[in-house]
Amino acid sequence: MAHIVVDDSENLEKAIKRFKRMVEKEGIIREWKKREYYEKPSTILNRKNKALRRKLMKKTRKTQESKSY
Question: What is the pTM of this model?
């Protein structure tokens, strides 16, 4: 359980920000990431295939560069 001690002289906004950071650090509440919404299965598949193609292109480029010596 996250808790903070707020001084009388401390600004309320700073205390809230400090509490928010502590809660996120402990993993109680996560920040919303980019893809935390519904994606169609075809969109997910297209994104994964595109990443795979990029990975393979990078791998072939590296092997071609190493063979050129």
Answer: 0.42
Structure tokens belonging to residue 55 = 């990975």
Domain range for 4: 1-31
25 in the same domain as 51 = no
Are residues 6 and 27 located together in one domain of the fold? Answer: yes
Residues 45 and 23 in one domain: no
For CA atoms 58, 59, 63, 64, the dihedral sign is: negative
CA distances from 7 to 2, 27, 49 (A): 17, 25, 53
pLDDT in tens, 3-44: 888 888 989 999 999 988 888 888 777 655 555 678 889 999
pLDDT at residue 34, as a whole number? 56
Tokens of 49: 């295939």
